[in-house]
Amino acid sequence: MSSNLEPIPITSQKHDPAWKHCQMFKNGERVQLRCIYCGKIFKGGGIHRIKEHLAGHKGNAATCLRVPSDVRVLMQESLDGVVVKKRKKQKIADEITNVNQVSTETSTFSDQVDANPGVLMIERPDTVEPSSSLLVNREGTGNVAGERRKRGKGKSSAAEVNALGFPLVELGARRVNNNVHMAIGRFLFDIGATLDAVNSVYFQPMVDAVISGGNGTLMPSRDDLQGWILKKSVEEVKSDNEKLIASWVRTGCSILVNQWNIQAGRILLYFLVYCPEGTVFLKSIDASSVINSSDALYELLKQVVEEVGSKHVLQVITNCEEPYIVAGRRLAETFPTLYWTPCAAHCVDLILEDFAKVEWINTIIEQARSITRFIYNHSVVLNMVRRYTFGNDIVELAATRSATNFTTLARMVDLRNNLQAMITSQEWVDCPYSKKPGGLVMLDLVSDQSFWSSCVLVVQLTNPLLRVLRMVGSKKRPAMGYVYAGMYRAKEAIKKELVKRDDYKVYWNIIDHWWEQQWHHPLHAAGFYLNPRFFYSVEGDMPNEMLSGMLDCIEKLVPDVTVQDKISKEINSYKNAAGDFGRKMAVRARDTLLPAEWWSTYGGSCPNLARLAIRVLSQTCSTLGLRHNRIPFEKLHETRNCLEQQRVRDLIFVQCNLQLRQIGYDSKQQDSAQPISSESASIVEDWIMGTDTILDDDTYPDWTTLETLSVSTMLLRPPHDEMEELGAGFDDYEIFNRVKEGDDENAEDNAVS
After folding, report:
1. CA distances from 711 to 391, 414, 622, 662 (A)
2. For the whole model, what pTM was predicted?
3. Could you give the C-alpha distances from 38 to 21, 64, 130, 375, 575, in angstroms and in order?
4. Is the Cβ–Cβ distance between 33 and 48 less than 8 Å?
5. Environment class of residue 267 by beta-carbon count within 10 Å: exposed (0-12), middle (13-18) or buried (19+)?
6. Fewer CB within a 10 Å sphere, N or C end of the chain?
7. Are 35 and 22 in contact (CB under 8 A)?
8. pLDDT at 301
């Protein structure tokens, strides 16, 4: 966006639905509009041009390729409504002309009508009511007020309404929709369900099924739900799982161990099995009595591996706590063809947590929180901020509390100009909250250039780590082929930003402390080695750690020594880009195909290496968490009746697997996440919680005064693929070899050589 574009808030007086899907800027004396989805700027044509752009109407504006389908339909309906209005206006004008023609029996009266322009000034279709006296009957004579009163005050026939072109069905549909929405709301409020239940991919199909049943359709009873419906659902889920299990033969799988601390100090473990085709929920156990025993954890993990089948399992992923480390290493000794792997997302989160403890960074975070706490506890201020930020929240939710600290700082930096425009506006000066202590603190910080400079530096240091966090938890593609490159880029970015070794080593040491086991993990090294995009971008020889990790994977994951020898020979073809590996198509596809797909397409001449590559590159690097607030795990482990316990176990089996099926769908979960909600309270509490200082004397927050947020928001950062940004070129010796303190001379000597 050009720097000379000054954002202008869109006021509540602008009622056209397209205003919610664009931004308004002032460029000199001209006002320009920008699409929030594709970023295209319109220098003329007004809101109608934007609407055509969003609706995909060809002619005056290029079609937006990124607009959501529901918004496109809404814009198309709005444009159709404009056409209807024009037709109504023309029809009324024609009818008035007919009235004039019928009344030409006396030329004097005709001249009066022709000379009176006031008659035409009342023909506004959007202000005419269905009971208007301008309605014309079939004979072309006007309906006078007396006739209207005879039919009854305020009433009109369907024919009259149709003469004006009012869409009775659409008006009725709007009224019915409100009733439907209220009915759904009352139901969810009554049962205490989480409100994001409406974002389930199964919600709309349920509504459609109820509608298709027609009037009189009987709803299922409690006995139906816990009886034949649950039984059939279990069968359907098991059938779906069988299809996923069948793919383990080709891709292998990863066992994910998740820990959940519940009330009364109890700890539950639940076990998932990941493969690129989807994730399967196996079971959950109450591990409260064994969680601190590495021996007991080992027995649990061993049992799960045997249940899944050790021949399919490449790794078991847990968190980084000591009992898991001991149990995991022992497990890898028992099953020589699998690895224990610490959860990459957990490690990155611990790194971000320690970054936030650095004194100057912690100060910036606390200053930023003083701004957001004030904003989110005063509805007047929050409404004003949302107007100036085009509907964006300045608190951005992430997967964890530590990550939210830095995603929110990044969001605030993105919206810096908008916040500064707000505090320098007359609207803010006139606002009584600007004189409050919190408002004065906010004014000082938002106006302080040194505060923003520090925020920008924090963002530069942490954005690469946030990218790694998003990558290792990616739902689009397995992360094994990218995680090593992602962390390399994170350290590289910190080094480039701070330049001086003493400065960047502070943050490198934090990374290495938590990532040490990941640096040495053969699967991560092999993932880098087998990803053609990175392998062929390394100048000179592959770093020894990469090669060593690759050889370790060959020996561990391929127990047949004959096949191991074949793979060693096939690696030479891969190194030299021989045969199909060197085809122009294969070279281009290094950057476009998923790594496992690349091997499946071009690795035919090296079948043994290709099979190993596909299995390694098909794995994840992190555990996948379920939304615990929807799963009654406690009920399962509190139930003492054997029959009821089995029923609850099946219910949880269905719930967890259906929830996992939604992973990978373009659902509304992320879009609908809002800072002010019970679902996100534990993550954003530090950024929005009220204090006695904020809620002073006569301040009484009222959520009902909050303006409704549009689903669409300003295009702060264009959609992009995190993994596509990793780029090529890995030639920093210091990063690959993690030079320790005191090794400066050796590092410099190696760099020169």
Report:
1. 9, 19, 30, 20
2. 0.73
3. 11, 7, 41, 29, 41
4. no
5. middle
6. C
7. yes
8. 95
